[in-house]
Structure formats: C-alpha cells, structure tokens
Amino acid sequence: MAPAPSSTSSAVILNINGEKHQLTVDHRTTLLDALRERLDLTGTKKGCDQGQCGACTVLVDGRRAVSCLNLAVAAEGREITTIEGMAEGDRLHPVQQAFLDLDGYQCGYCTPGQICSAIAVIEEHAAGWPSAATEDVRPEAGPPPLTPDEIRERMSGNLCRCGAYVSIVQAVTRAAEAHQAAAHDDDRAEQDETDKTTEETAA
Q1: Which of 27, 86, 89, 153 is a good FRET partner for 97, with 20 to 30 A between their CA atoms?
Q2: Which residues pair with 71 in a beta bridge?
Q3: Which pLDDT value is given to residue 3?
C-alpha cells in the first residue's frame, strides 16, 4: 500500500510507455529513481547521477531528458518513454536494430540512453533543428545533411566508456536513412491518395 502524501511528498500519476502509474513520491525523488526504484523499470541506467554522462536519458514528450536531473513530481502529465517502451512486441525499434547490427552497444550500460538520444536526434534533425556543428543555420538553407560530425555533436551528451563511438555513429546514420526512406514513402502514398481523389472528383 502506497504511503499517504505528506508535506514532503505527493501522489502523482506518471504516464510511462503508454501506461499510467500512480505512486506517492518524496518531492526530492528524481524521475530516474522513481523509474528504477519504485517502478522496476531498470532499463534506464544510473551513471554519473549529475546529468553529465547521458546514461539515464529518456524521452519526455518526445524530447530527450536526463532523468537524474528531473523530478518525478514535475513529470506528471508528461509522456515518458523509456527503453522498455521502444520495441513493438518482438520487433525492435529501427534504432535498436541498427545498434545491434552494427555493434554499437559494447558493454551495454550506456546503450539505453544512447538509443533514446539517437531517436530524438533523428527526429530533431528531420524537423530541421540545427546543431552547434551546423555551418549554415539560415532557415532558407534547409536541414543540414546528417553527417558524422552532426551526429557526434548531437550525441555529445551521451558518453561511452567502451569507446564504441564509431559504431554508434554508423548505427545512427543507418537508422536516420531508414527514417528518411519511411517518411518519403509516407509522403508518396499521401500524394498518390490526393491525386486519386482529385481524379475521381474531376471525373
């Protein structure tokens, strides 16, 4: 039975991987500790516990966040996605599959945070967000190519003590290419449907 809220604790509902979890937490409880110690979602790893290594990275409303620097009470009402929520049944997320295929995981401890960051990086790039490595940030320049330098800069908040950076960059590159191809297929299917509707209307 969950302890009753007090002046130093609150009852919160956390929406994690599409499921709602109700629990009472001390106001000082980090999202990382709530995930690991209270909800047994141990895929998210505790590394430096100071927001510097990225091992605890999760997605909050689709954006990456180091869970050791976020309070659980502040996460109420947000959509939280951890590594446990990436795969669809037995089908791995494309980024997970790319890490597996290209040996980007090494010891595996930092891998959940790396994968969460990589997924957000690909979305951020697809949305046209520049990075510190982007040479031309003018809107008319369009999105920069996702070069290895761009990936290294965008993933720089995630450290790997095994030094698997070369494989990680390759994995992110492959997953980004698959993401772009899927987006292109979706756009083409939508255009085909629009053309078909226009033809039917004109007939």
Answers
A1: 153
A2: 30
A3: 63
Among residues 132, 174, 136, the alpha carbon closest in space to that of 157 is found at 132
Helix, strand, coil percentages in the chain from 3-state DSSP, rounded to 5: 45, 15, 40
Contacting residues for 169 by C-beta, under 8 A, at least 6 apart: 148, 151, 152, 155
At residue 81, the 3 state secondary structure works out as strand
pTM of the predicted model, to two decimals? 0.88
- What is the chain's Cα-based Rg? 20
According to DSSP, the residues that pair with 16 across neighbouring strands are 19, 80
* Amino acid making up residue 21: H
Q: What are the average pLDDT values for consecutive 10-residue runs of the chain, which has 203 residues?
A: 76 97 97 98 97 98 97 97 96 96 94 98 92 88 89 97 96 94 80 78 74
Give the DSSP H/E element, type plus range, for residue 25. Answer: strand 19-26
The token duo for 54 is: 């990225």
Task: Indicate the residue type of 32.
Answer: L
3-state secondary structure of 118: helix
